[in-house]
């Protein structure tokens, strides 16, 4: 109906069902129609359990098939009596005749009306041919698939459980992180709909995640869907198939186990996973051969917990799981800090396994297209600095309002229209920001948390940019130092890491580059490698200096990483410095996960876990708040370093770093063992050798783990 069918008195129909009518009821309806009285359905009329079209088909405009009968008005005009107890099937979206009639009707109305009626949402099935096929491929730009079905992924979590709504949200979030939600539609499938509605016709994948037993009639419907060539993913449910039975093992229930996931011909993936407490067993006398994907626990019995099961002769296939791949580490089911750490450390591999399963079931898990670049907005942390800034701009832009540099051209405009072109090398900058608003960046919150004399006062903000490291390129040598520049983005399409590495920039990551000017002949100017340590320390201190947040286990890893404990990377720092005359102009880029739990871990995960373990109520943080606090701490650390040198900041640095007493090897994996003891006067690692000597070591130049293959510098 697509919300287009209206009834009198503003009533909107929600559902159409077919009804079995007895001969007497049909005769009564005919008598009422002939006398002009409106028919009334009795409340106890028996509902048909199925709404699917009849299997009988006839060609021609008067055929039945999916559209069995003409409207009763036509029958009356033809003076044809109604056959007793005849079923009058509904016209479905898969009916070719109905689709053509609907399309032609909409076209007629469109030509006759000034309104631009939108296209119908995509809902074509594989039975459509010709023009309807072409129409279905264009609707909403949804990705095509081999079956020709609508790209619907249906999620069944049962209906009797109190946890069902929360479980549905978990499964939706999980799949949204695996597949492109612009290409697939995620819909809940209720127990009633599973029994009654014709969902198999438009279901590309059925995901079953119900915790309670599945009713037999619903189970039968799911099996029938598989027999027709359907695909099923069962996540810790009681769904059984093809001779595999579900056996309970109480010792495994809600425990974190080592899982070995096998991809035939492509090696194994090992990870930690939360067990459901059930395993798959072969039914007696039915030796089975699992598909190319399988998983077992790394225990004495090598219990099978993932099996791939082909079904039927039409290509039906199911992957059955008895480990909670759908459950994040932050779930209340996870009881201890150790279990949380194990699951979070395996989070990337959990998604690797999920994507492998979804791909085997015919879905595409390709990387999504990068979002379109957006204009920059020129914002200020205080109103007092705005007038001097605009005056400075008036003197430095060319006749077209452009400031050019080697990498970038910034065109300053009062407003921006969507027709304007944006590229990584040419970006409009909107200067009239009275109407500025962003869901992800609150300027007032940033202002409240920024307590600096100079840093971070002038903001270039973008919803989406290539990389914040390039945005300040044309301004860094020109803008007066008291107008501290900072670039902030919500998303990056080409985030930079150390060396050739890239930095993933998902939504929820704090992304920024701040400009710092350091006199060459100063404490820090003579020890520039310390800049990256100060920025890493500033980010950690920005969080842990908030009252009651001091025990959030955020730490620094030499030389430029932010870590959760010593387990997982939460963020990183990248420093580019240029010496001009007697001044270092330093771009400090940093990115750290604040609200994005995937693909690894974020600061709010740590806060949520801390609340759970300590029954606390710490509030989650925002990226804009933490960026402002980090820049504030950075300025304070720089001032302290300039006054007192390394000794002024190292005690705080050592409080938060992960390396105390850590053992590393020099040169190679088989090299000499040494113990990290601290930083030297220039910011390089000092290690204690077995002979008792403390020496400085340098990285060997690899960009993956700078603690690997450390080398002793040559003595001169």
TrEMBL record:
GO terms for cellular component: cytoplasm. GO terms for molecular function: biotin--[biotin carboxyl-carrier protein] ligase activity. The keyword Transmembrane helix does not apply. Residues 27-82, 122-144 are annotated as: Disordered. It comes from the Eukaryota. Residues 444-642 form the BPL/LPL catalytic domain. PANTHER family: BIOTIN PROTEIN LIGASE (PTHR12835), BIOTIN--PROTEIN LIGASE (PTHR12835:SF5). Belongs to the biotin--protein ligase family. This is Biotin--protein ligase isoform X2.
